[in-house]
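Batch 3, record 17
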Amino acid sequence: YGKNTIKFLRLHREGKKHFVKEVEVCTHLRLTSAQEYLEGNNSIVIPTDTIKNIVLVLAKKNGIPSLEQFAMDICNHFMTTFCQVAYVKTYIQEVPWQRLHENGVPHIHSFIFVPDGIRFCEAEQCRNGPLVVFAGIKDLKLMKTTQSGFEGFYKNEHTTLPERHDRILCGELFCKWSYGECKDFDFDCIWYMNKIRECILEAFSGPPDCGQYSPSYQKTVNCIQMLVLSKVPQVQVIEVVLNNTFYNVLDMKNLGLTNDKEVLIPVEAPHGSCACTLGRKQFFEA
Amino acid sequence: YGKNTIKFLRLHREGKKHFVKEVEVCTHLRLTSAQEYLEGNNSIVIPTDTIKNIVLVLAKKNGIPSLEQFAMDICNHFMTTFCQVAYVKTYIQEVPWQRLHENGVPHIHSFIFVPDGIRFCEAEQCRNGPLVVFAGIKDLKLMKTTQSGFEGFYKNEHTTLPERHDRILCGELFCKWSYGECKDFDFDCIWYMNKIRECILEAFSGPPDCGQYSPSYQKTVNCIQMLVLSKVPQVQVIEVVLNNTFYNVLDMKNLGLTNDKEVLIPVEAPHGSCACTLGRKQFFEA
Amino acid sequence: YGKNTIKFLRLHREGKKHFVKEVEVCTHLRLTSAQEYLEGNNSIVIPTDTIKNIVLVLAKKNGIPSLEQFAMDICNHFMTTFCQVAYVKTYIQEVPWQRLHENGVPHIHSFIFVPDGIRFCEAEQCRNGPLVVFAGIKDLKLMKTTQSGFEGFYKNEHTTLPERHDRILCGELFCKWSYGECKDFDFDCIWYMNKIRECILEAFSGPPDCGQYSPSYQKTVNCIQMLVLSKVPQVQVIEVVLNNTFYNVLDMKNLGLTNDKEVLIPVEAPHGSCACTLGRKQFFEA
Amino acid sequence: YGKNTIKFLRLHREGKKHFVKEVEVCTHLRLTSAQEYLEGNNSIVIPTDTIKNIVLVLAKKNGIPSLEQFAMDICNHFMTTFCQVAYVKTYIQEVPWQRLHENGVPHIHSFIFVPDGIRFCEAEQCRNGPLVVFAGIKDLKLMKTTQSGFEGFYKNEHTTLPERHDRILCGELFCKWSYGECKDFDFDCIWYMNKIRECILEAFSGPPDCGQYSPSYQKTVNCIQMLVLSKVPQVQVIEVVLNNTFYNVLDMKNLGLTNDKEVLIPVEAPHGSCACTLGRKQFFEA
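Prediction for the assembled complex:
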């Protein structure tokens, strides 16, 4: 049980310059006994209202140095404060506020909402177990209008899809990776120094002047995983899900026109989905 | 990988009387090799477009006798047709069309959309493993305006929640149960004969003339599980998640009024959540 | 300016029996001067927080006898209390809680959320003008699987739609009518006595044993309007919008099957829309 | 009646460089007669399917030079082709794809979805009337963490809001302006040359090094209107709606802490709303 979508803004000021971190936190606990379920005995139950208060108090006291550090702080607090907690998990996602710029000059206290991929993290711990930290990005929608195809696939009497070597590849990415058992990482430093987001975009798109051919969604997913694993040594395992939107080249023959991939109709349902988890060992074997 | 949200309507006619079943199907496969991820070799890949075609062909040929039977048909088809499939999972949810009635008379071909709880099911199978079937109901929102409290819980310096013995209990239920390894069940018969939906409503509400006191969300979740397990012998394990909306009694003192639980404000975020999975063995022990 | 989505639950008790009315209220004002826009002078501005308080105080004091009466109470309060208010409009929609029944017996304090059409109303008044009241129902989704066609329409070189005399008609209805300048109406009585909802369903569906042929969405919209105007003398003008979802009979020839309108695919975008407003005068002329 | 959410992507290629314009189009017509409503006579009805075809054919033939030009092309086509059309309105909104950049280098065929404000336009025409064009931006969410207050407002017994001279101002902007009766405008040129979006951001935020004090949402709305009208001579009238989210400074006294505007809770419902339409004449008078 736990509390979902605890939303708040943590405002930090350095002189006249303001920094904002707005987050949604979900914290879930499992207790050492199930007596509240079986007998309605609440004596060891920490109310979800108290869970919310603790999250807000920690935000006030420690600030949010990084999403990951804050998730670890919350897990640590519950494990060290409450002996009746057998397991704790905290998920945090960030509201994508970006500092406004006017003619290239950053504004000291104005921000704009830019949801081009949402950063999130997760920390979890069992009593007597390690604290494990995950991070990721979701709702990242990308499109490439060529350098994508799908050929040589398995065919039988139910196959109606034609082979194509030039199609649009468009999809929403969910990427989540594990930092393994956590040492003293500076998570935002890893994110920015290793340019994780840039890695993902680059693996999807290929070089800016020519792109890179994708023979399938599966291969594109694998490329993203391989590049992140090779560029970010702290990442142990990476899961990528690509929910793709198919763009159908409209047949305009009955309207007397030849449509040379100029007008395409997005097909939102059904959509394909392709998921893969890749770890270090598997990586070196491959 | 697979195909999500394959939406279609299966229309069945008996004379002038029409029967509709509109569903959303998601079918996912895992293949015996990962060469399409690692090498971009698509030779054993069944396109998601073919997956969609197969689902639609099965619907046309077999109809949808019940959601569960249709999910099993799909899994069976993939396992028996494609030797490269190592695992198949199919999720189906129903669009809640109900037959219209005029002055109590059922209409032969008119329907109304009534989303008061969505039925769904899931079937999954590994090669050489059993076909396992789950069923459930989700998005079922219930409220009781009294006979609910929360007292005697654990308190410390972060506790600000007062004890209450008369509060509103309101939440959205997700219930999912397993029928175990499947024999020749008539699933719709189990659903209707055992009145599973009615069980859930009754366990939540208590007797119509007086209700039944709930000492916590956890206990209510447990009551639902216990009643379903006791009334429906085919159910092996049941998971219930209750996402509750808190209704705050508005303090109107500064407006010169005494609010005797007459005006309440729903608090949508954050919301509490409480989940539990209960199986037969645990049931008899309890 | 104003306050949107003021959400609250009004609980009314008669002995042990509870009655709930949960609503969302939006109240907007226009003031007699625009000095707050032009000069930033707030001296006559009623804060939206005060608007919210007033709505809640009225709910506490008067209860919600009907949505329409409550909307009128709010408008009256603003007009009589604040001379700087030039115009007030209040929109209210109801959260669709229905009393639970167990084996036909109504439960004294348990409710279920059944969103099969949302009731709403609107009241508006200019200073020195009449108080005008509207009511309606929205998000009402209906389907008939036959007795619908579309033939004899205008054709040119851009027409690819075939004529059809047997198609599925499925759509979401928005109906809003005016009660004109308001006298002392008992609005819930009008709603229930005249069976407005039943009128709409009946005009859409036709008789339960055979239905009624619809030659177009437009004609169905008109039928609904005509029936409501003829059955409910208090209604002055009625607007109906029908947003229809097209169900495409899937061509399965390339899969070796003949699909006799058994498998249909809903096309959610684009969707057709058809709106019409019909008043008494026009009605009698027609 | 008409067709809503006609979604398509128009792909334009210049050598290896690709340009995408994905849009949603809604086109509505009113015919010169209402016989299809009253008599079910469809002989002058242009099917919504034909409307869709025409939009797609125009996109194929003309491309989408700008949203506004494309909306005008559609209106012109219906007015000149069909004498039974009495009125036509076309609304278009853009799917916010932006070209990807790698280390500052633009990618030739890869794009990212960045919904930080959605551009839209509207064109409408009555037979024998002028073609009027509107343009706008919606879903633009902005926040400033200081330089905002609300003081000196009207107070009575229902006022509980304290005066504040330092609060967070956060809201979603909807801006729509009219270009009046349309001459041969190059609409994208007006948009980019006059930096309309930048105008709105600047009027909201003030100078980057210090901001500008906002005494009310109303005054901020007015500032945006005044700046756009003064910087963009082609704009005749501008409507701005600001739906604001209130950020509540959490009282942490009962948790033993002093919260100096460091932890704030967003209040999503109810939210205030403030709308104003300002034209040239009013502008000069002000």
